[in-house]
Specification:
Blueprint (H helix, E strand, L loop, with lengths): L1 H9 L3 E6 L3 H11 L5 E7 L2 H11 L3 E4 L8 H11 L4 E6 L4 H9 L4 E4 L4 H12 L7 H12 L15 H11 L4 H8 L3 H15 L4 H10 L5
Parallel strand pairs: 1-2, 1-3, 3-4, 4-5
GO molecular function: DNA binding
Pfam family, one: Response_reg
Keywords: DNA-binding, Phosphoprotein, Transcription, Transcription regulation
Length: 225
Amino acid sequence: MEATNTLDMMEQPIKVLLVDDHEMVRIGLAAVLNTEDGIEVVGEASNGMEGIRLAQAYKPDVVLMDLVMEGMDGVETTRRLLELYPDCKVIVLTSYLDDSKMYPVIEAGAFSYLLKTSRANEIADAIRAAARGQSVLEQQVAAKMMNRFRQPKADAVRPAHEQLTEREMDVLKCVAKGQSNQEIAETLFIGIKTVKFHVTNIFAKLGVDDRTQAAIYAHKQGLAD
């Protein structure tokens, strides 16, 4: 009986959620991916909020995420989605290759980054790789990242808070207001464990030891509301 259950688990298809504001893109992706062995498109969302709602309903293994959408963009959607479901793998599928979009979504936790010029089999292979825990980067994306890391680091002359992610900055502002972890969780609609994780990262990046020092830093830098 145990062997049968293991076999059944292995044969479960990879559940994929599509998040893209172009209906024809979603229709085309769903049609192609549903013909691939071991892959099942379980939902389609036209914006970030709908994507989060469908993720709560379907618990996808992989999310194909567009970046530029009305309302909540792909970066924020990725961040919030992974706060709720850290085991989910987000594959960015976009037409954009500029740094202002690529690096923020990778920092937000995107697992792979593909361009919409990718062939159907390449997207399917990236989905299977993500399910195995393997990241896939478009060749042009990998080249840009390598070039970025080859550049001299300027962190030593940059203000410490520039190392914070957008969400960490939100948490820091709440800390500066004197909010507790519970109050921050309620303000930002995130879990208490996520708040503690961000606070720990903030302390490390700012080089402070406690909330008081973090709050003082925020006020001195003009970061507090």
